[in-house]
Amino acid sequence: MTTLAVAGALLTGTTVAASAAGRETTATCEYPYVCFIKNGNIIGHFQDVTSGWQPLPSKPTAPITVVNTRHDDVAYIRWVGGTTACLVPQSTFTVTGGQLDAVRISSSATC
Prior knowledge:
4-stranded antiparallel β-sheet, 1 helix
């Protein structure tokens, strides 16, 4: 599994690490959640560490902001088609293309 810059997020089969969150972005998503934000509204939030993928309630299309407010846990997001990205603790990732279908929160502190 290869870790690339966020700009490479849409490469098939690649895991991508996200950058640190800005304070203004995490203000709308409370700890200990991983939130999916579209048009300024939280459309989904998850807090359970799981070994498998949790399906999103809908399959939102970009643009979407994903915020990981957790202090010690990474969060993986998955696009329809299988591409994944990894969000380190306390980070934000902007999805600029495609459609998401699942999330997985891991107790690991690194991607």
